[in-house]
Specification:
D-Maltodextrin-Binding Protein, domain 2, Arc Repressor Mutant, subunit A, DNA-binding transcriptional LysR family regulator, alpha/beta, WH_DNA-bd_sf, five-stranded mixed sheet, rod-shaped
């Protein structure tokens, strides 16, 4: 087998043992096969013409066949070169697909995320949507939902017992979060309370009612929820102290006190002896996904936050809290 260069015949050349071509060499060959001109191909590839020529000769040596006929005036594909063009394209396409699949797995987070939820927060539409998005984006992340009580919701995050939580703001400064939804707040009264028949109510009408209390560590949060002090400056009278939602509802059902909850509680926690009543001047309730800022580098937690952002952008109400 002979080569022609600048019109001069060359003596047969002994080739080295066959080797697999590199993807780089195949890409150079395909560009040259399109241009059939070393100068134009070299310019497209940002290479010098001698460098391109050397790479093509190296490819021919690796394959053991001449791919091109060279002369001073033209470059032509040999039958072997023509046959290898579609094969090279298919091989490079397969390698691109392989890299894309590998990259998708490299981007995919793995690990375990522990998510706290107060009461029915785990069943709320935004929670369901976020967890579904997390599963779709990062199937390698496993999720554990843990019930957290009202008194320990923030401390469980700070202590690292959970990685994130679906909570009801306000959030303390040590936490960061994403606003998920807003809904009305309602009063939860004993079903036999005479005021139930007068609904909707005002805070002034509830001024004489004792309110269920929570432990001191969530005092600021509970003052917000009970509107303490009231708009007229009066203080809320607190009654029995509880730590979780079930105990709170039991205290109301027994007629010991009233409480304030998100409107969704009427759907999620129907109880004998309890009535959920609209209060016209109660502030709205918001829901948030919360986490400790310096923990967000945890891959599984970062994946959860990313999934939440995706859902919120899709629903057009992404907001930081």
């Amino acid at each position: 087998m002979t080569r022609a260069g600048a019109g001069d015949p060359r003596s047969p050349r002994v080739r080295p043992p066959l080797r697999e071509p590199s993807s780089h060499q195949l890409r150079l060959f395909l560009v040259l096969a399109e241009e059939l001109h070393f100068g134009r191909a070299a310019r497209r590839l940002f290479l010098t013409q001698p460098t391109l020529s050397q790479q093509i000769r190296a490819l021919e040596d690796r394959l053991g066949v001449d791919l091109l006929r060279r002369s001073s005036r033209r470059v032509e594909l040999t039958p072997a070169g023509q046959a290898l063009v579609p094969e090279a394209r298919e091989l490079l396409a397969a390698m691109t697909r392989l890299q894309e699949v590998a990259a998708s797995f490299a981007r995919e987070a793995r690990g375990h995320v522990r998510i706290g939820a107060i009461g029915g927060e785990a069943a709320m539409p935004y929670t369901v949507a976020i967890l579904a998005e997390l599963s779709a984006q990062h199937p390698g992340v496993t999720v554990e939902i843990r019930a957290v009580d009202l008194a320990d919701q923030v401390e469980a995050l700070i202590r690292g017992e959970i990685d994130a939580a679906f909570l009801r703001p306000p959030l303390p400064p040590v936490l960061r979060g994403l606003h998920l939804a807003t809904e009305p707040r309602v009063a939860c009264l004993p079903a036999n309370d005479p005021l139930v028949e007068q609904a909707p109510l005002t805070l002034a009408q509830l001024a004489d009612h004792v309110v269920v209390d929570l432990p001191a560590q969530v005092r600021e949060w509970w003052d917000h929820w009970t509107v303490n002090p009231r708009p007229d400056g009066s203080k809320v009278r607190f009654g029995p102290q509880v730590a979780d939602l079930e105990a709170m509802l039991l205290a109301v059902a027994r007629g010991q006190a009233i409480t304030f909850l998100p409107a969704a509680a009427g759907r999620l926690y129907p109880r004998p002896g309890i009535a959920y009543v609209d209060v016209t001047d109660l502030p709205m309730s918001s829901a948030a996904l919360a986490w400790v800022p310096h923990h967000r580098e945890h891959p599984a937690l970062a994946a959860l936050i990313s999934a939440a952002r995706t859902v919120l952008r899709r629903d057009n109400h992404l907001a930081e809290v």
